[in-house]
Amino acid sequence: MKIRLDKFLSDMQVATRSESHQLIRNKKVFVNDQVAKTANQKIDPLLDKVCIHHQPIKYQKYFYWLLNKPAGVISATSDKHQATVLDLLTDNDYRNDLFPVGRLDKDTTGLLLLTNDGQLAHNLLSPRHHVDKVYRATVQGQVTAQTIATFAKGVKVDEHFTAKPAKLRLLKYDENMLQSQIELTITEGKFHQVKRMFQALGMRVLSLTRIQMGTLTLGDLPQGEYRALTSTEINALQ
Ligand code: URA
What we know:
28% strand, 238 residues, alpha+beta, binds uracil, 4-stranded antiparallel sheet, 15 strands
């Protein structure tokens, strides 16, 4: 699909619209080795070679960042009062069309995908696709074989919502603190789902982190940091 030259340059964040106009007027922009004449000239981003100051501009339509969300930031694109997950991106990486794929609570940490690819986000979030989400949590109380069996059948959260069968694993039980470290795999993404599932059984989630979503894993990415997905990871998601 063809787009305006100034839009291409601003989409690739090499220049604002008005800077692009200036560069074009100053004959610094070349399309297929010819000086660009006007900002509204149409180009095909996949076929045409665009250079500024003789440097080729690489075209990229979609951006994918894997973030290890820290506690204290909200899963939104902008907020008047609170820091959002997009505030964690450097100026270079920030784009105003990026958004988080789904939500983690303000106090939840871990894997969050940031992208401008609406179709991919839809596929990952659609209940029809049953994408696994894996969480690690510390919960107050003892997770028993009975708890695990209840999660496997589907926890009745309230009158209106019974969660789909979920895989619960006890990693460690601390007898002194009366706390269980668990790993939970769910295929849904309802509001406060993990906390509400435990709450329904009288157990409180003390800390929660997401370590996996579909084929994406957090690995050893430190909290508050992010990295670009590899092409293998992007292909696996699609
Ligand atoms: N379940 C929750 O309760 N909170 C989250 O942030 C994610 C899943």
